[in-house]
Write a structure and sequence with these properties.
The complex is a heterotrimer. Chain A is built from 15 helices and 14 strands. By secondary structure, chain A is an alpha/beta fold. Chain A has a domain of 87 residues. In chain A, strands 8-9-10-3-11-12-14-13 form an eight-stranded mixed sheet, sandwiched between helices. In chain A, a hairpin with a 2-residue loop joins β13 and β14. The longest helix of chain A has 24 residues. By secondary structure, chain B is mainly alpha-helical. Chain B has a single domain, classed as MetI-like fold (Orthogonal Bundle). Chain B has 14 helices and no strands. In chain B, α12 runs antiparallel to α13. Chain C has two domains: 84 residues, no CATH class; 220 residues, MetI-like (MetI-like fold). A two-stranded antiparallel ribbon of chain C has the order 1-2. In chain C, a hairpin with a 4-residue loop joins β1 and β2. In chain C, α1 packs antiparallel against α13, α4 crosses α9 and α6 packs across α11. The longest helix of chain C is centred in the middle third of the chain and has 38 residues. The chains are: A alpha/beta, B mainly alpha, C mainly alpha.
Chain lengths: 440, 310, 337
């Protein structure tokens, strides 16, 4: 991403966040009107943390997660407003990505702003770090971020792997897209033997080859070099698979997805996602489609890899107990909005939005007594042209007239804990709802 | 399509729905769904127009020959272009009125498609459902016969049968029926086997229903959906194939049948008389198109994937 | 089941199907009047007739007759063609070359156009290009090809005079030595570009006519398969890896959409075989289709039955090939279901 030879030793003011979402709003037209699937969602992901994004099916959490990679279904979807800014990292210059003290063994360091090379300028807001706006990035630039700086794990590995390509083919694609130069280096094809041969190999390594290239490459003079390149590729793929504790990576490479178990497939997906040592991993319900016993192991694996590489993770889930085990902070989404966000321990000890409370009461724990498990009454509202009220109106046990006329904003109630509910709004104390008062 | 129950229906007291009412509602839902697709609507309109033309043929153009299916010949008005008074679509080399042929051809096509599709539906369904239900040796033998029949391309097979029987419209119908029943037998058999292995048939068996009862009451009424789609598509296909056979020369010369008329009009195209072939051909095309559109719409509406969500 | 076992099993069934078809063909020859009709005349004495009957084994029982008939067919004796006044086996290869040239040309038109149209439309779902393709697809399926042929002839031959009729200009093709019997190939082999152009020029209209229906079927299948594939998760997963849209479409979605389309391509070969009959009649193309149509009208049974037998075997073999390709392409397919 950056020229590594003259990159600065440090940035003026290294940002603590890796990405931040501001006022993200996504609409989907339907027969009955505009569906406000995601409505002014804002949050940030700190460098190296795991942020949980929790909510029911259809609350907009997946759409939010996909927006990081411009994978929103547009059209028909409409990006009404909002920004997703991202500070990409570059490979650590001191250790060439293998991990050293300078980069805290992550192999990555924040990339410097291209206009001030790290000194801090108006463009990077004084931080000196490179800043990109993901939602409005042109196709060729977002493509270089996808799979390299930001990777994604999908819900069902059985569906997210192409059934007719081998595991090796699919993992290779990541390296071929983002690690062309490294592959050529590993195969011992240096810049010194430029010319037709290197050009052809370069095309092969970046998947721009046609059938004529393939023919030329399979002929004797180039055949040896091509095989060197393919061997390097194979080794890279096997190394990536080994990272996810797959015991026999070289045997997996030539298998087809349907020949593997669900847990194995998800390991392959994770290997694929982490192949380029990304800065941010979007995990969209990565364990939902798996057996319970496999779930725990995959969860441990993600946690482990995250610790080791300090990768930031956006963990999307509907399962509160999972989120509690893996996340540093949690954002709770309801009907297209973030209703509560904060440190995991605070949210679980002191849930401060009626919806979060309802959710926690709906989860059985060892301490739950018989009859105490409560469902939230009512159903999720339809998001077609919603009125300017709180989205939880109608289901909230504490609602007041104010809740029906105005939508509460997300506001900080304590250190590292924000909630969007009038309950915590001191200014409107008179007609504000309160937890003590039930209106049923 | 996910059909959420409308509030009024959900609120209504749940009465014991008779099977008839359930079925009626399903037909109504199906009709509504079919009519929501513009292509299917166009197809239905064309079919209705064709049927009307076929049924009211004697009133639209009065026959002046003893056999109304024979083209009337006016040797004083051969090779008239379209728009000639009395001959709206022109006349053929032999003085046949193209409009007359077009209208009575519709009647002929209606007869043909109803007779052929009706008979293959009955034969195919009986043989296919029995093979599927009884299974064993009978199934094995019947399916091998079906395999052999399906090895010969449809049109070629029909052509060979019609050819050895000699050129006549009746022979074309017979040949088509001989060729097409196998398709229905196979579809019906697959469907019956699928139903036979479903849980509700197991349930019927457990409560001790007789085999005949299970066959007649549980299996047969539920297995018609796929053959009905095929039948709709074939209503168009048979006319297309019959016209091809007639065109090749296996129809009776001089009858008011579209394929024969296209063949008759072919002689004039070198001298620029395009109309005698064009109009009857257009009718064949429209007939086939209409049933294809409706058949596709029906198939989409009956798709099991959408059915399960209802 | 292993792919190899499946292929072997299908190959073992094939002869039985062919025997079944031959029995039907034999039955048809016996239904359609006396098979020795063309050898008889009114002046013959009953003794002479009996002698001819004996020569053709008509005095034996039906199974024995079938045996003799089948033995004849296996030895290349397909009978006497009344239309061509020559043994069927002698005329057939020459006529076949013409039909082969036509059907291969239209097959190429259909596969190339069909796949291209289907991909183009499927990748641009619900945009104008897609709607046009769907119209082509639905009209193609219900277009009687003899009518399309006549329409094209009315426009391009009778009115505009741009396109010729027949298979070639006799004076031009006469200069080309016959090697394969395919005029375009022969002309190329002889290096005669004028003859090649002439042969191609004659080929265009009939190939388009014949290929139109098949194009429609392939395009329609390709489109719906591609639309279905593009909605699957692995497509987004491929994008998430950073693949350019071109590769997502080409390497992932289109490749997988081709799998169901291959079966349809197999079916369209049967469609093309059938279609040659009326197209050859109208364009005066001297192939087996036109030959067969002539023999139908003149009661030449030997030719007709050879044609039926031949097309059925081609049809069966093509279907087998397609099934094997399909099974080979799709690792998920359950064989022998």
């Amino acid at each position: 991403m950056l020229d590594m030879t003259n990159r600065p030793s440090g940035l003026a003011n290294s940002p603590a966040t890796i990405a931040s979402v501001r006022d993200l709003t996504v609409h989907f037209p339907s027969k009955r009107g505009m569906v406000h699937a995601v409505d002014r969602v804002s949050f940030e992901i700190r460098d190296g943390e795991t942020l949980g994004l929790v909510g029911e099916t259809g609350c907009g959490k997946s759409v939010t997660g996909r927006s990081f990679l411009q994978l929103l279904p547009i059209p028909p979807g409409i990006l009404a407003q909002g920004t997703v800014t991202f500070h990409p990292h570059a490979r650590c210059g001191a250790c060439a990505g293998t991990g050293c003290d300078a980069c805290n063994s992550t192999g990555r360091r924040p990339a410097a702003c291209p206009s001030c090379t790290g000194a801090g300028c108006a463009q990077c807001n004084g931080s000196g770090a490179e800043t990109v706006e993901l939602l409005r990035l042109p196709e060729d630039r977002i493509r270089r971020i996808r799979g390299d700086r930001i990777a994604m794990i999908f819900q069902d590995p059985g569906k997210a792997l192409n059934p007719t390509l081998t595991i090796g083919d699919q993992l290779s694609e990541v390296f071929l897209q983002h690690r062309t130069e490294e592959l050529l280096d590993a195969a011992g094809i240096g810049p010194e033997d430029r010319g037709l041969a290197a050009r052809l190999l370069g095309r092969l390594a970046s998947q721009r080859n046609g059938s004529i290239d393939n023919l030329l490459l399979s002929l004797p003079p180039l055949r040896g070099k091509r095989n060197l390149l393919l061997d390097a590729l194979r080794n890279n793929v096997a190394a990536a698979l080994a990272e996810t504790q797959i015991a026999n990576p070289y045997q997996i490479i030539d298998r087809y997805p349907h020949e593997l178990s669900g847990g194995m497939r998800q390991r392959v997906m994770i290997a694929q996602a982490l192949a380029c040592n990304p800065d941010l991993l979007i995990a969209d319900e990565p364990t939902t489609a798996l057996d319970v016993t496999v779930q725990a192991r995959i969860l441990e694996l993600i946690k482990d890899l995250q610790k080791r590489r300090q990768t930031s993770v956006l963990y999307i889930s509907h399962d509160l107990s999972l989120v509690r085990r893996i996340c540093d902070r949690v954002a709770v989404m309801y009907a297209g909005r973030v209703v509560e966000i904060g440190r995991t321990d605070r949210i679980f000890r002191n849930p401060s939005h009626p919806y979060t409370r309802g959710l926690l009461h709906a989860v059985p724990t060892a301490a739950t007594k018989r009859g105490q498990l409560m469902a939230i009454k009512g159903t999720v509202p339809e998001l077609v042209d919603p009125p300017p009220s709180c989205r939880f109106v109608g289901r909230c046990p504490h609602e007041k007239a104010l809740c029906r006329s105005k939508n509460p904003e997300l506001a900080q109630i304590s250190d590292e804990h924000s909630v969007s509910c009038f309950i915590h709004d001191a200014a409107g104390a008179a007609d504000a709802p309160s937890f003590d008062e039930k209106t049923q | 399509m996910v059909d959420l129950p409308s509030p009024s229906r959900a609120a209504a007291p749940v009465v014991r729905d008779s099977a008839f009412r359930v079925r009626m509602r399903r037909v109504r839902d199906l009709t509504a769904q079919i009519l929501s697709n513009p292509a299917t609507v166009i197809g239905s309109v064309i079919i209705l127009a064709m049927f009307a033309m076929a049924i009211f043929a004697p009133w639209l153009t009065a026959p002046n020959t003893p056999d109304p299916y024979q083209m009337p010949r006016d040797w004083a008005a051969t090779r008239m272009p379209p728009g000639t008074p009395g001959y709206l679509l022109g006349t053929t080399n032999e003085g046949g009125d193209v409009l007359y042929g077009v209208i009575w051809g519709a009647r002929m096509s209606l007869q043909l498609s109803l007779v052929v599709v009706g008979s293959v539906l009955v034969i195919g369904c009986i043989i296919g459902s029995l093979a599927g239900f009884i299974g064993g040796k009978l199934d094995e033998i019947l399916m091998r016969i079906v395999d052999v029949f399906l090895s010969i391309p449809e049109l070629i097979f029909a052509l060979a049968i019609a050819a050895v029987l000699g050129p006549s419209f009746g022979n074309i119908m017979f040949a088509l029926a001989m060729v097409m029943w196998v398709k229905y037998a196979r579809i019906m058999r697959a469907r019956v086997i699928q139903i036979k292995n479903s849980e509700y048939i197991d349930a019927a068996r457990i409560i001790g229903d007789s085999k005949l009862n299970i066959y007649l009451r549980d299996i047969l009424p539920n297995s018609f959906t796929p053959v009905m789609v095929q039948a709709t598509l074939d209503m168009g296909n048979v006319v297309l194939i019959a016209a091809t056979l007639s065109f090749i020369g296996l129809g009776e010369a001089g009858i008011a049948e579209w394929g024969v008329l296209v063949s008759e009009g072919q002689a004039g195209i070198a001298s620029g008389r395009w109309w005698a072939s064009t109009f009857p051909g257009l009718m064949i095309f429209l007939w086939g198109l209409a049933f294809n559109l409706v058949g596709d719409g029906l198939r989409d509406a009956l798709d099991p994937r959408t059915e399960s969500s209802r | 089941m292993q792919l190899r076992d499946y292929v072997i099993r299908r190959l073992l069934v094939l002869p039985f199907l062919i025997i079944g078809v031959s029995m039907i063909v034999f039955a048809l020859t016996r239904v359609g009047g006396s098979p020795i009709g063309i050898y008889l005349s009114h002046e013959m004495t009953p003794a002479q007739v009996a002698e001819i009957e004996a020569r053709f084994h008509l005095d034996k029982s039906l199974p024995v007759q079938y045996f003799y008939w089948a033995r004849g067919v296996l030895q290349g004796d397909f009978g006497w063609s009344g239309v061509s006044v020559a043994p069927v086996a002698e005329v057939f290869p020459k006529k076949l070359a013409a039909t082969l040239e036509l059907s291969v040309a239209s097959g190429i038109v259909a596969v190339v156009m069909g796949l291209w149209l289907g991909t183009y439309a499927g990748a641009r779902r619900n945009r104008p290009a897609d709607h046009i393709t769907r119209v082509v697809a639905v009209t193609g399926a219900s277009m009687p090809n003899f009518w399309l042929a006549i329409l094209l002839l009315i426009i391009f031959w009778a009115q505009l005079g741009w396109m010729p009729i027949g298979r070639s200009t006799p004076e031009i093709i006469a200069l080309v030595p016959t090697r394969t019997g395919l005029y375009t190939i022969d002309a190329l082999l002889a290096g005669n570009l004028v003859a090649f152009g002439d042969a191609l020029w004659h080929l265009i209209l009939p190939a388009i006519t014949l290929g139109y229906g098949a194009t429609a079927i392939i395009a329609r299948m390709m489109r719906s398969a591609l639309v279905e594939e593009l909605q699957l998760d692995y497509v987004d997963a491929a994008r998430a890896k950073g693949l350019p849209e071109r590769l997502v479409l080409k390497k992932h979605a289109r490749r997988n959409a081709l799998i169901p389309t291959v079966t349809v391509i197999g079916l369209t070969f049967g469609f093309l075989l059938q279609g040659t009959v009326s197209v050859e009649i109208i364009f005066r193309w001297p192939g087996i289709g036109k030959w067969m149509a002539d023999s139908v009208l003149r009661g030449d049974q030997a030719t007709l039955m050879t044609y039926v037998l031949f097309t059925s075997i081609v049809f069966l073999v093509l279907n087998l090939i397609v099934d094997v390709i399909y099974a080979n392409l799709d690792r998920r397919v359950e064989l022998g279901k």
